[in-house]
């Protein structure tokens, strides 16, 4: 099993879980973050080419507050999501969007710490929350 979770944005967080299909509890977990829209898309593309069972991405909705805070950042996140959806479609990889609230609600700080999956980078931690939600 190989699952990649992504928190898209100007800095994109990534969380990857790999495990033998017959022993998922023997998995390997790692995180990373990438700056720049094209670098993020290319990094995920390479992971998809190496074979993923699922690509999980934090959904992004524009609100009045979002526009006030960061119009450019909003566009970046939306464009990354679109590119990742297309890559997953082309490679026949299941693509799942998850809301930030669902991931935060399910993958509490305490839960991540108990798992030993506590990246210090906020973007990597957001991606980890989506990964834990998907794997549950």
Approximate shape: globular
What number is the mean pLDDT?
Answer: 91
Unreliable spans are none
Q: How are the strands of the largest sheet arranged? A: 3-2-1-4-5
Radius of gyration: 14 Å
Helix content: 40-55%
Describe the structure.
- By secondary structure, this protein is of the alpha/beta class.
- It has six helices and five strands.
- A five-stranded mixed beta sheet has the order 3-2-1-4-5.
- The radius of gyration is 14 Å and the shape is globular.
Structure, briefly:
This protein has six helices and five strands.
What's the arrangement of secondary structure elements?
Elements: E1 2-7, E2 11-18, E3 28-35, H1 37-49, E4 54-58, H2 64-69, H3 71-90, E5 95-98, H4 100-106, H5 109-115, H6 122-135
Parallel strand pairs: 1-4, 4-5
Antiparallel strand pairs: 1-2, 2-3
């Amino acid at each position: 099993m190989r699952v990649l979770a992504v928190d898209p944005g100007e800095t994109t967080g990534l969380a990857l879980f790999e495990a033998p299909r017959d022993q998922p509890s023997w998995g390997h977990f790692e995180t990373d973050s990438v700056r720049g829209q094209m670098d993020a898309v290319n990094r995920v593309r390479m992971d998809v080419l190496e074979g993923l069972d699922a690509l999980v991405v934090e959904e992004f909705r524009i609100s009045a507050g979002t526009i006030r805070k960061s119009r450019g950042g909003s566009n970046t996140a939306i464009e990354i999501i679109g590119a990742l959806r297309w890559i997953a479609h082309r490679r026949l990889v299941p693509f799942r969007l998850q809301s930030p609230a669902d991931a935060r609600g399910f993958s509490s700080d305490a839960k991540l710490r108990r798992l030993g999956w506590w990246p210090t980078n906020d973007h990597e931690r957001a991606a980890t929350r989506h990964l834990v939600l998907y794997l549950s």
